[in-house]
Amino acid sequence: MSAAERLVAERGFRGVNASEVVRAAGQKNNSAVAYHFGSWDGLLEAVWTRHTVGINQRRVELLTAARSEGPIPLATLVSIYIDPLASELARSAPSYWARFNEQWLADAPLNVFDPQSPLPPADRPNPEVETVSVVADLLNQIIKRLKHLPVADRSRRVALMTRFVIGALAAWERDSQGDDRQDLDQLNQELLNLALALLLAPAAKRGRRQAGGSAIP
After folding, report:
1. C-alpha Rg value of the chain to the nearest Å
2. Contact criterion met (CB below 8 Å) for 209 and 215
3. Phi and psi of 208, rounded to 5°?
């Protein structure tokens, strides 16, 4: 699982095959992936699950504690989304999880929450409903808080926020392998501030676009 996660994070889903993962893991049996995981998809699912289970358990704990204090502010909901991700990266040394997520998002639709959008290609892990139900509930709560936006725009705005967070954490992972590693706690706080600013930004003005990019009312 570690070899698959690292290679996918570094080279993308299309840049890796099962035999390369077997060699990188120090295995001599070319059927090791099928033997242990059933298939390539089963291996990717296992990589996904070994991180998301702990992340979402922590989110449940944080949500439960926050609910006991009354209505949950938007900033708290965003923190509950981001903090467990950053904690998971800190726990893994070195970490490839954010980059693995980034590769999954690369071919996903812009608004990953739009039920009309196509799913990612078949070579991407498609977690079971129970795996994503916690984060889906959390992000839906954030969506409902964005009352300053038209209803049709709210889920897309949250999707943009999640892409921003994952992309920034993936960049931190890459930097952490060199001499420019930023303190993860500091980055976590900065991401919270910027994610809130992104969510609370006013709706874009609708209109026909000029060639130069400005909107015509």
Report:
1. 19
2. yes
3. -75, 140
pTM, two decimals, is 0.85
Q: In the structure encoding, which two tokens stand for residue 82, read together?
A: 């981001």
Q: Give the tens place of pLDDT for each residue, 45-85.
A: 999 999 999 999 999 999 999 999 999 999 999 999 999 99
Length of the chain, in residues: 217
76 with 63: CB under 8 angstroms?
no
* pLDDT digits 0-9 by tens, 142-201: 999 999 999 999 999 999 999 999 999 999 999 987 555 568 999 999 999 999 999 999
State the Cα–Cα distance between residues 95 and 175, nearest whole angstrom. Answer: 11
Residue type, 46: A
